[in-house]
Design goal:
Shape: globular
CATH architecture: Orthogonal Bundle
Number of helices: 6
CATH class: Mainly Alpha
Number of strands: 6
CATH superfamily: Jann2411-like domain
Largest sheet: 2 strands, antiparallel
Radius of gyration: 21 Å
Structural class: alpha+beta
Distance between the termini: 47 Å
Order of helices and strands: HEEHHHEEHEEH
Number of domains: 1
């Protein structure tokens, strides 16, 4: 009886932890939803059914039902623009006019109105609201506003690209010597350098 060759089980790669700065910037978190895995792009938002939970989890929509699946392309277009703009800032280069216009269009679609909140027993607070009846339009405007903050009000040197060859994530550098978005990328890079030196010595 012929035996069929057994296939080695594929080792699941655990998800990467959030890159430094993602907790503070939802725009950075969105840009990093596309990564490289085994050299190929891996999208954490592969279809509209994944976009709604992501927006809800990041408090951009009140509930998943607020997401109109037909707006999936708008989210992806803005994600691409944000990624282009942040990468241009890291590279000290000018972004494409299309990326700038995509961000500005999201801002114009839901203008921001600021107001003052002063609780009876508390400190005064600034409250910003994007004026639009559509929750997805407001979410896109919030992402665009966060991108503006990241580009214009954060130290330019704090936004960085992971130095690992097989990583395309961006992060906020808290320490000047940090080169990688995660310890996993740092470990891989150090191992790769070790083997490269070993081969060169031979």
């Amino acid at each position: 009886m012929e035996r069929k060759p057994t296939q080695s089980p594929v080792t699941a790669v655990p998800p990467l932890p959030p890159a430094p700065g993602e907790a503070d910037s939802v725009a950075l978190a969105l840009a990093n939803t596309v990564i490289l895995r085994r050299g190929l792009p891996d999208d954490a938002l592969p279809d509209p059914s994944a976009v709604a939970p992501w927006l809800h989890r990041h408090e951009l929509i009140a509930q998943e039902a607020d997401f109109d699946a037909s707006r999936d392309g708008d989210v992806r277009q803005l994600r691409s623009a944000i990624r282009t703009l942040l990468t241009a800032a890291v590279d000290h280069d000018a972004p494409s006019p299309e990326a700038v216009e995509a961000l500005n269009a999201a801002l114009r679609a839901a203008p921001n109105v600021s107001s003052l909140r002063w609780p009876a027993s508390g400190q005064p607070e600034r409250e910003d609201r994007h004026q639009s009846p559509d929750p997805v339009t407001r979410a896109l405007a919030a992402l665009a506003t966060d991108t503006l903050t990241l580009l214009c009000h954060s130290p330019a040197a704090s936004l960085a690209a992971c130095a690992a060859d097989d990583c395309i994530r961006l992060f906020l550098r808290r320490h000047a010597k940090r080169q990688w978005c995660s310890t996993r990328c740092g470990d891989r890079a150090r191992v790769a350098r070790h083997y490269a030196r070993h081969r060169a010595a031979q």
